[in-house]
Write a structure and sequence with these properties.
By secondary structure, this protein is an alpha+beta fold. It has twelve helices and ten strands.
């Protein structure tokens, strides 16, 4: 029994791990070779491993955000690209729809994603707007009874294969991104939607990450999510919920790398004894274990705060910057423990190393996380001074 997980959460963790071991690991090489894991996502839906944090009335499991980070860690430990594809649909796309969409939108666009029958994608990043999310240039103009969408999005996970996008665009240029942004649901098969390219990635090779162009795409008024010009608030809420999940994905990679290094150092012999007996190796293992435990506690803290309805702007940024950087450090150490064989594709360690690098960029760079942390720290100081 974990001090930090309830009995039900432990049981859910076991269920997720069993699924990952029985279904995800056997297909990891196919996904690494470029096969998008659509069937695996559908299977997760059948096993109720999608939509853990969302209410049962919306088609979710009603288990809270701690359960969502549990799924993210377990699936990612088996294959990070599969988890990246899952989370892009059932966290990044689903969260803003679940919390800001109306009942009809949830029925039509959310429920099919939470069963795994449909795939979603969050369309935010653009060629000229990455870390500066408020600087997006994609626009939606109202023309008669319809909206008309124009612009481009890039680095969109699931972008080339999703059935629908949760898209952010400017609806009032005079007000700018923070006060003139809105959110829309855009079916991929809409006239004027073109997938320009799928990117070839360093890691996460089974995930589909695309550049998409929108030209005079007509949207009905009912595809507006929330209120007009409320988009930036919706986006901030989505990012807060995304960050513990992507942090847990990186924890999963780190755990897999650590376990591989632990086993290898125990059986690999040099100079007549297992390399674990050399302090240079054993202290690496110790440092890796510390990083894993610290990451897990920071991530669980964020998940608990979300489940309590508390703000996690600072806590989520802390968890993300630490867990993502720790994951790459652990993967790097695991590769070093393996020596030459770790640099080959005879072991999955080189994949862990490549996959772990991604989330220091995606979901808000480490530099942006540090900006958020210091900003919130000074705001806390000012609040205490006024009290």
């Amino acid at each position: 029994m974990s001090l930090f997980l309830s009995k039900d959460e432990e049981a859910f963790k076991t269920k997720a791990r069993n699924f990952a071991e029985d279904h995800v690991i056997p297909q990891a090489n196919e996904v690494e070779a470029g096969k998008y894991p659509r069937e695996l996502i559908r299977d997760m839906g059948r096993e109720n491993l999608l939509g853990a944090p969302f209410s049962k009335s919306d088609g979710g499991q009603g288990l809270g955000w701690v359960s969502e980070v549990i799924v993210a860690e377990e699936i990612s430990a088996a294959n990070a690209a599969t988890e990246m594809s899952r989370a892009a649909s059932t966290t990044l796309y689903a969260a803003p729809l679940a919390y800001f969409g109306n009942n009809q939108q949830k029925k039509d666009f959310l429920r099919p994603v939470l069963t795994g029958e449909s795939i979603g994608a969050l369309a935010l990043t653009e060629p000229l707007a990455g870390s500066d999310a408020a600087g997006i240039r994609t626009t939606v103009a109202q023309r008669g009874d319809s909206y008309v969408l124009n612009g481009e999005k890039r680095f969109i996970t699931n972008g080339g294969l999703a059935d629908q996008y949760f898209l952010f665009a400017i609806t009032d240029r005079k007000k700018g991104g923070r006060r003139g942004m809105s959110a829309f649901l855009v079916p991929r098969e809409s006239s004027g939607v073109k997938v320009v390219k799928a990117y070839s990635l360093l890691g996460m090779r089974g995930a589909n990450v695309a550049h998409i162009r929108f030209r005079n795409v007509k949207l009905p008024p009912e595809n507006l999510v929330g209120r007009k010009n409320q988009g930036f608030d919706i986006l901030l809420d989505e990012l807060d919920r995304e960050r513990p999940v992507v942090s847990a994905e990186m924890l999963g990679i780190a755990r897999a790398a650590y376990e591989a290094a632990l086993e290898y150092s125990n059986k690999r012999e040099q100079f007549g004894r297992p390399i674990r007996e050399f302090q240079a190796i054993s202290f690496r293992i110790a440092d890796m274990a510390v990083k894993l435990e610290a990451s897990r506690l920071l991530i669980l803290n964020s998940g608990r705060l979300l489940d309590m309805g508390r703000s996690i702007r600072k806590a989520g940024a802390i968890a993300k910057v630490y867990a993502t950087e720790a994951s790459f450090e652990v993967a790097n150490s695991a590769l070093q423990v393996h020596g030459g064989i770790g640099y080959t594709r005879d072991t999955p360690v080189e994949r862990y190393f490549r996959d772990a690098r991604f989330m220091m960029i995606g979901g808000g760079t480490s530099d942006i996380m540090r900006h958020i942390i210091q900003r919130e720290a000074y705001r806390d100081l000012e609040s205490r001074s006024k009290a």
